Amino acid sequence: MNKSLAALNKEFPVLKARFSGRRLVYLDSACTVLKMRGAADAQRENLLRLGGCGGRRSFYSLSAGMEEEFESARRAVADFMGAASPDEVIFAGGVTDAANLLANSFPFTKERDEVVLSPLEHNAVFLPFERLAAAGRVKLKVLPLKGLAPDLDALPRLLGRRTALVCLNHASNIFGGRQEIRRAAAVTRAAGAYLFSDDAQFAPTHGSGAAAEGADACAFSGHKLGAPYCTGALYVRRELMAKLRPWRVGGGTVEGVERDGGYKAKYIGGNRGFEAGVQNYAGAAGLAAAIRRLELAGFGNIRAHVSGLVMDAHDRLSAVKGVRVLGDRAALAEGSLISIVPEKRGFSAQDFALFLDSSVKGLSIAVRSGRHCADLACLASGVKETLRLSYFTYNTPADTETFARALERYLRML
Ligand SMILES: Cc1ncc(COP(=O)(O)O)c(C=O)c1O
Predict the structure, then answer these.
(1) pLDDT at residue 1 in the model
(2) Which of 29-33, 37-41, 60-64, 119-123 has the lowest average pLDDT?
(3) Mean pLDDT (whole number) for 381-410
(4) Do 39-295 and 3-30+298-413 have the same topology in CATH?
(5) Does residue 200 have its Cβ closer than 6 Å to ligand 1?
(6) Which of 173, 378, 390, 392 gets mutated to test ligand 1 (max ligand atoms within 8 A of its CB)?
(7) Exposed site from 70, 102, 114, 222, fewest CB < 10 Å?
(8) What local confidence, expressed as pLDDT, does residue 175 receive?
(9) In this structure, which topology does domain 39-295 adopt according to CATH?
(10) Is the CB of 88 under 6 A from ligand 1?
(11) Coil/strand/helix, residue 387
(12) CATH number of 3-30+298-413
């Protein structure tokens, strides 16, 4: 293994934990990446050193220190996301939070009320728009699947004068791979609409690149980078941000309130206008530390390592009779996970996942089974459930081999 990755892998203490005496084989990084010591330390240190009033509310030194650290974290996030300026970054609790914010702040009009979604959207992105549709505020269109990817050739047909927003999941959390944001962004812009990219599964192994590829908005979750839970950000291009109407308002989002017949609030506008109330300052410090640590290890190295693991998994698992690997090798190599579906009678992915946790001597093998909150993808493809192996820097081909042997044993027992 590359030296920078070997050094990075010392940062994950959970890997050394034992579960009822069993060693962890962690193959569920798409759910969450194990937490990094440096990120946890940065969060703790922020709380203990600066844990006073934050958010431009007070002007004494302690508060100014917290503000400085918060904005320094924002600069790290802006660079990571490829933003033109930190002003294009809104701190959010992750992609779910960011997508709810975007959906409910977006300036839909009677004339432009259509949202086109990829069939691979996670419920985190799909449901906020589904709710708006149920309330009669927007109409939804879903791109067809071509193989296991959204059919981008069909995108121009779905776009029209009524299209306001296109949501294109950057890397699927069920089928893996990666989508062509640049191509979708160009077509979307030509139709006068905006493009949002969910970078939840893309950012941890590529860096969050959708802004550089032309997306008008994108979001990632910090916990999937080894940062604390409930951290992350929404990037919004400046021109679109000026049109959004903040969904959540409160302390820190107004210049003041005046009497004007009734009451009239004067909102501050800009990214801070979306960060109502006290923020997760310590989480932002932890997030910035995680980003800096991954950048030090090098996203090129991370990418190459994870891609190699996925290709190895494809080859190894394709040789197992009784399961089917979803997706082709080249497409999967662009992502960080692989899904397999049971093909033998009586094989339940759920039961097998429990077996992996408890019935392999000395080991607790952690994989995800089920629909992975990707209901649209399951409906569009007819896939009912999958077993998903997802990778990060701390995995090796030996983890896949351990899984594959357990799988072969389980299949023999059926
Ligand atoms: C593709 C994708 N989008 C969104 C989410 C939601 O992320 P979070 O729970 O961090 O908000 C996930 C979580 O697994 C995901 O895989």
Answers:
(1) 81
(2) 60-64
(3) 97
(4) no
(5) yes
(6) 173
(7) 114
(8) 97
(9) Aspartate Aminotransferase; domain 2 (3.40.640)
(10) no
(11) strand
(12) 3.90.1150.10
